[in-house]
Amino acid sequence: MLYQASMKNISILKSDSHLPLLTLVTSNQNLQDVLKSSIDSQRYQLLTANTASEGLDLISGHPQTADAKKTDVAKIALVDLILEDMDGLSFIEELRARHRGLHIIAIMCKKELAAIDMTAESITLMASQCGANAVFTAPFNLAELLATIDRFLETSAAVDSAITAKNISETTPTKETA
Is residue 72 scored above 90 in pLDDT? Predict the structure, then answer.
């Protein structure tokens, strides 16, 4: 029942275009469930993609799903480093090349790290070098993840305000003095 209520909130959440858009790219259903139930539906829109190609479409504002508007552009991408159709590090590089202002949070499960014989420190370094702004290894502190999301959204809002102010000043006619 809790999962259904969570999914209901997500559906409502997707229809509100005034909330910041977050895109979660992972085929890990457990990770999707945890983040869907943890992300505050009153503060964020959360869209999920199971593959890198779906993620690129959602993040670019060209969703393949009917519940997202084509004008929505993600501010933050939460990216699982283990994806079915593309290496997570390559996906982060692709996102960084296409969307310079996008904040990218890489996520990796400790169990998956052990399977590929990597340390959390080495994968954090590699993800950062590929363009990730932050890296979390699950299990992670949800409060810390949400604080990171908030910090990135504040940065995006400040940049958006500065760009808007600059555009307004450039298009506002000035009075010529004689």
Answer: no
